[in-house]
Amino acid sequence: MFYDDVIATRSIRRFNPVRTISRKELLNLIDTARLTPSAANLQPLKYMAVCEEERLAKVFPHLRWAGYLTDWDGPEEGERPTGYIIILGDKTISENVVYDHSIASLAIMLGATELGLGGCIIGAVDREGLAADMNIDTDRYDILLVCALGKPAEKVMLEEVPEGASIKYYRDANDVHCVPKRTLKEVVID
Fold first, then answer.
1. Is 17 helix (H, G, I), strand (E, B) or coil?
2. Is residue 153 within 8 Å of residue 89, measured between CB atoms?
């Protein structure tokens, strides 16, 4: 059921490196993303698939992982993603990409979940450094998002919180990543 797929598609920030991701798997996820809706059907998104060890190492240092977890700098060696999809906006097609990358990144994450993978959509990126290390032409492309992918090596638990309570995610005493969500009643306006 789609509802269950959405619940299962959580932000994962620690990965099991035993399960690698092939270029073919990344291209299949990109193929799904390219078919998602696009404003005015301009289709300005381009994608960079990264699964090779040396290229994975170039992407990782440019990502910021969990702003609310102030005592955590991101996945340690041995729990890092085994694939990335860098989502780019092609400025020769449109300089105003507002929503397309959000829709495409969710399609990538849902597809990853179907493959038994997990991921994290990362917008906190050192774009200048990433562009330099990955040879991305910034005159033509804007780095919009990075989808970090791999086999989950952590448990994520959703919890409903009462109105006015903190929505900051945290790790509990058992190292479970807890994600507070507002209730349906709170988000529906009648």
1. coil
2. no
Asked if the 155-190 domain carries CATH number 2.60.40.10, the reply is no
In terms of DSSP bridges, do strands 83-90 and 141-152 run parallel, antiparallel, or are they unpaired?
A: antiparallel
Q: Do 58 and 161 touch, CB atoms closer than 8 A?
A: no
User: Using one digit for the tens of pLDDT, what is the confidence trace for 8-17?
Assistant: 999 999 999 9
| Assigned token pair, 175 | 């190292």
Q: Pairing state of beta strands 177-182 and 156-161?
A: parallel
**Where does CATH 2.20.180.10 sit in the chain?**
155-190
Please give the torsion angle defined by the CA atoms of residues 74, 103, 85 and 6, in that order, rounded to the nearest 10 degrees: 60
pLDDT digits (tens, 9 = 90+) for 5-64: 999 999 999 999 999 999 999 999 999 999 999 999 999 999 999 999 999 999 999 999
We find that the CATH architecture of domain 2-154 is 3-Layer(aba) Sandwich (3.40)
CA distances from 22 to 1, 153, 188 (A): 27, 19, 41
Which tokens go with 59?
């992407």
Question: If you write DSSP's letter for every residue of 60-104 in order, what string do you get?
Answer: GGGB---TT-TT--SPPTTSS-SEEEEEEEETTT-S---SHHHHH
φ/ψ (deg, to 5) at 55: -80, -35
